[in-house]
Here is the input.
Amino acid sequence: MAAPMEEGSRDPLPVVLVVLTVATGLVDAISVLGLGRVFTANMTGNVVFFGFAVGGARGFEAPRYIVALAAFLAGAALGGVLGNTLSGSTRRRWLLTAAVVEFALLGVAAVVAIGYDIESLAPTAKLYALIILTALAMGLRNATVRQLRVPDLTTTVLTLTLTGLAADSSIAGGGNLHWGRRLAAVLSILVGAIIGTVLVITTGLSLPLLVTGLCVLIATAAYALHPASRIVAGKGDR
Here is the structure.
């Protein structure tokens, strides 16, 4: 059974996911601007870019997208294993474990990024190591958030969020369902992308990678202090 929350407390998990969405914007800026037009958080973009590369468009390198997709899938598989392994333990333990792993991957990436040139995308070994590490982290994140089943807060993809925002609006005859949450998701990834762009342009990749990892770890650790984190992770989170 789930541990009861203290009277008057409210589960702040959506707020945590909004912070993680900001972190996604940071990762998008890091990967697109610093790793040669490749996404390591948004796999829809990679599939499209891979199609461009296969079709012969200049500036699109198929190996980058293949590596990103493979690493993302591996990270998602790891997230699934982690969720299943820790099913029955508290949500606090599960989410902290996932956050620590994600922070570790991004921290290693920050170290790898030292000496990496975003203009020439060299050395190549560092380029692919950064793609793999960040895609692993985001695959893990996506699998974990997916198991939480919080509506309109996937932390990475906004297409359905924007669709819901318009389709459920009063203009369309809807009841503005979750409009605040949906708008927060859109603005969060926008803010993250802006901050990430400024950091990448002015400092390179190491600092934004470290900032991203810290955002994830601090937000999750703060949630772990709340009574809601004592909920047992079970079928409702898978």
